[in-house]
Amino acid sequence: MDDGSIEQLATRLGVTSRHLRRLFAQHLGASPLAIAHTQRLHFAKRLIDQTDLSMREISTAAGYGSVRRFNDAFRNTYQRAPRELRGRRGNQTENAGVLSVRLPWRSPYDWDGIVSFLQGRATPGVELVSAGRYLRTVSLNGEAGVIECAANIADKNVRLNLHGVSTEGLFLLVQKVREIFDLDAPTADIADVLGTDPQLADLLHAVPGIRVPGAWDGFELTVRAILGQQVSVKAATTMAGRIARRYGEPVSIPDTVAQLAVGEGLDRLFPTATKLARARFNDIGLVSSRAETIRRVARAVRDGKVVFDNDQAPAEFRASLTAIKGIGDWTAQYVAMRALKYPDAFPAADLGLLKAVGETGTAGIRKLRDRAEAWRPWRSYAALLLWGSLSNSGG
Prior knowledge:
Elements: H1 6-13, H2 17-28, H3 32-50, H4 55-61, H5 67-78, H6 82-89, E1 99-104, H7 111-121, E2 127-130, E3 133-140, E4 143-152, E5 157-163, H8 170-180, H9 187-194, H10 198-206, H11 218-227, H12 233-247, H13 255-258, H14 273-276, H15 288-302, H16 314-322, H17 329-338, H18 351-356, H19 361-372, H20 379-388
Antiparallel strand pairs: 1-5, 2-3, 3-4, 4-5
Helix pairs in contact: 1-2, 4-5, 11-12, 11-15, 11-17, 16-17
């Protein structure tokens, strides 16, 4: 709603603007504009509470066209000026020189599980997990930086530190990080459905805060999924690092990251689709058929034939991806699960899932699919629970 109209949003969602307004009124008690307005204000208030950003920077980050418009909206809602709210908490941030935002999660939350998942799949040079913290290089508005995420278990939030990242696009960046760590998962609803299966009930008891890790970039994840076809997680991670080293854009790491003494080796952005569309991949350890599949996917993404917009229907996305030679249902389901954050994606043919439920072969796949019907609409979370019961599984 920052750059478009209700009519454009309705068209994107495949409904009329009148029906969209009706749905918002019925389920949220407010119009789409009012919800967008409230979301921007709440985000701005968190920045006032948690940072020393100027009011101009905060108004830009929250999507307001001017400081005056931001001040008027804030005063109308909170009956005080933004500067008055900042004055109440003092002017000290927890991390001098680093923009830091707290992102609360829904409890329970399995921080160790999601960090362990990301650690085994972290692309060398692009991502790093160390001492319970997740770091990765990012590019926003043409500027490269590093995001750092760590858990504050007592306060039930993820601390997001931004190194060398400007405030422009901060709102979308925060939303992306919330998706990567799946902070808004409706844990009670998930447990109600999956808990009816005895095996999943036991796994939920052991890991009540199960989450589905998201991804920073859909194309990057798709390449990673292709690399993971029929090889171990470790081997796929090694090849991903070689591709990043060969074709990724070098970046300079901010001093604030270097001071952490954990940022060594973070020196690449993952290569773009345009870069990999003609890559040779020689001496990477990649078989020729998968190298060609990556090039095909890169060309499709470059040309707009495959997009990673989570507003599209999952079936539509899977059809566009599996239309590419070398991409099967497993890859499409896995990417839909993590990049599109589709909670009901389920790669039933995955060998790890079959092993976890004691099934094999084509008949086992059919049995697992039939059994998983009772897990809708949370089959992605069921997959993570089952993968977590094994080791070295899950793409």
